Amino acid sequence: MLALHFTEFGEGEPLVLVHGLFGSGTNLRGLAKSLAATYRVIVADLRNHGRSPHAPGMSYTDMADDLDALLTRLNAGHADFIGHSMGGKAAMTLALTRPRRVRSLAVIDVAPVVYTHSHAGLIHALKGLDLSRLRSRAEADVALAAAVADDATRMFLLQNLVAEDGRYRWRLNLAALERHMEGILGFPSFPERRFHGPALFVAGERSDYVRAEHEARIAELFPQARVTKISDAGHWVHVDQPAALLKTLNDFLRS
């Protein structure tokens, strides 16, 4: 297990926010500051992302172990968890394997199922950027445009490009992500495990990550779960509809 990088906001009961693939805790900072009016919000960078250490492993068991160790470092017996996408799957794994660590679970736009899409093209594009010749982030943006046409996606990915001692590097461990992509898109099998605590699955109305056919699997693993949709939101619900998401999460946490 790794010692994850994290930032804290506010005081109260511990609430851990966990970002998605290619992201970092920075992506959830706005949500964290809003929730900090009531909670001690801990925003974690998952392994091989953000400012957290790199490691060869990238399984959901690995990520759950890291989150468990983070609670120990925080002297927290348990916490509420909010996880987006890959971070939601990591939080689900912790809830299923160490239920006493998770007081409640809110999962944003992902289900405990195997997805068939691939992010291999994005990783290939990032690996193909010649960092030794790069002089600016704007230059990287132009170089990536052919492979990553969507401006918002490209801007999101380029948040991981940092300059140190006059040279650029990726904060992401691209090799580990590429090697474990099948597992990241999947979900571990837990034949005898259930999380009986409060659980909420928040789907973006314009996203297909949480579909009607997924609800039976959600109910099987999380018997107390309910599923809700945020109107006019895609996969990045916290970006598309931050106020609606905040209200939904606050209503759940207070209940």
Question: How does this structure look, described?
Answer:
- The chain is α/β, with parallel strands linked by helices.
- It has two domains: 6-115 and 186-254, Rossmann fold (3-Layer(aba) Sandwich), CATH 3.40.50.1820; 120-171, no CATH class.
- 36% of the residues lie in helices and 18% in strands.
- The protein is built from eleven helices and nine strands.
- The protein has helices at residues 29-35, 60-73, 86-97, 120-127, 137-144, 151-158, 174-179, 181-185, 215-221, 237-240, 242-254; strands at 6-9, 14-18, 40-44, 79-84, 102-108, 161-164, 167-170, 199-204, 225-230.
- Strands 1-3-2-4-5-8-9 form a seven-stranded mixed β-sheet, sandwiched between helices.
- A hairpin with a 2-residue loop joins strand 6 (161-164) and strand 7.
- The longest helix is centred in the first third of the chain and has 14 residues, at 60-73.
- It is globular and about 50 Å long.
- It starts with 5 loop residues before the first strand and ends with a helix.
- The mean pLDDT is 95.
Please write the string of helix (H) and strand (E) elements: EEHEHEHEHHHEEHHEHEHH
Residue-averaged pLDDT, rounded? 95
Q: What is the count of distinct domains?
A: 2
Report the total helices.
11
Radius of gyration: 18 Å
The biggest sheet, with number of strands, parallel, antiparallel or mixed sense and barrel status, is: 7 strands, mixed
Biggest sheet: strand arrangement: 1-3-2-4-5-8-9
The percent range for helix content is 25-40%
CATH-derived architecture of the largest domain: 3-Layer(aba) Sandwich
N-to-C terminal Cα separation, in Å?
33 Å
Could you give the count of β-strands? 9
Stretches where pLDDT is under 50 for at least 5 consecutive residues are none
> Overall 3D geometry?
globular
CATH homologous superfamily descriptor of the largest domain: Alpha/Beta hydrolase fold, catalytic domain
Indicate the proportion of strand residues: 15-25%
Question: What name does the CATH topology of the largest domain carry?
Answer: Rossmann fold
Secondary-structure-derived class: alpha/beta
